[in-house]
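#struct-help
A.M.: can someone run this one for me? Single chain, 119 residues.
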Amino acid sequence: MGLLNKIFGGSTTRPEELDDSTIDAAIADSVEKPLLLQFYSDTCPPCRVMSGIVRELQKQLPEEIRVTKANVAYASQHAGAFAIQSVPTVLIFRNGRMVNRVTGLLPLDQLTAQVKAYV
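D.P.: on it. C-alpha cells below:
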C-alpha cells in the first residue's frame, strides 16, 4: 500500500500546470535549473501513474529542477511542435533547449537518473 500511496496519495506537492500561453516562458527560464515538462491527458491511465512518479521526483529534488505539466488538450500547439504522439511524454529542457525526451512510463529511479544528468 505504501507505493500506491506514494503514486496516488494526496500529496500537496503538485507540478505547475502550463498551457500554450506559458510554455515558452517556462522553457526560456530553464537557465537556472532544468525544466521537466510532462505532457498528459486526463483520460490516460498511464499518465496518472507517471504523474505520481513525477510528483515524487519533485519532492526528492525540489531545488534542483522545476517540475511542470501540460494537458495536451490545452497545449495542443506545443504538443504538435514537439511531435507528442503519445502520452505520457516527459521533456527535459536546459538553457532553453530540449535535452531529453521520455515517452511512456519510466520508474522513479530511472527518471531521477536522467534528470540528474542535467542538474
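A.M.: thanks! The two ends are 32 Å apart (CA to CA).
D.P.: also worth noting: The chain has one domain: 2-116.
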